[in-house]
Amino acid sequence: MTPAWEAAGWERLVPRVGRVRLPVWDCTAGLVVGDDAALMIEAGSSLAEGAALRTQARRILGGDRRVTHLALTHPHFDHVLGAAAFAGVEVYGAVGIDTVFAKGRDELRADAVRHGLDPDAAAEAADLLVRPHHLVCGEWTLDLGGGVQVLLANIGPGHSGHDLAVLVPGTDGGREVVFCGDLVEESGDPQAGPDAAPTHWPAALDRLLDLGGEEALYVPGHGATVDAAFVRTQRATLATRFGVS
């Protein structure tokens, strides 16, 4: 399957897991492939970006296979506004993200426009925004078939009020992979917007490290893949920045 990942413009991390860095905002999307199902992590910043992700996934999966599950790590426009492009897919998010989607569509649209998304594209995506069908309170295991089980873990708040991490245990001789959302950022300093919980953020990173362990690959919401040492360093930086232990 490696040539298929490359042909679609994706980076293969381990045999059944890959990721792509999207243009403009450098948001990372991920794909986990089981024998019976496939999980997309993040939906992109617009319907066009979501549709492109879905098309790329079909190219990687081959045949008539398609994405069956979608996990949204937190409710920021560059991660969620493409969700409506995944019609018929089971959508997962942390408890509370549904309230943000129900009451905060106008703010999501406005935030996207402030960051440069075309106003019409932002309005269309916000109008069609898909609320998650499944809300994760603690942990939720998805069985994708072929021995591929994925753990969705609600480990926030931190970067936002509703942060979800995705752990893919090692399969086929590969390392564990943790999709961190924007709890971890590599291509710039972590961003703390109005919905962040700064005093809780270091503790969320502690839970992230407990989830993945020392040998895992950690995939930030923005930037290159990192290791546990990088996450610990960012945790220390955030603790100093926000005055918490």
From TrEMBL:
UniProt cross-references to InterPro entries, sorted A to Z: Metallo-B-lactamas, NDM-1-like, RibonucZ/Hydroxyglut_hydro
Region forming the signal peptide: none
Segments forming domain Metallo-beta-lactamase: 26-222
Protein name as catalogued: MBL fold metallo-hydrolase
Source organism: Streptomyces atriruber
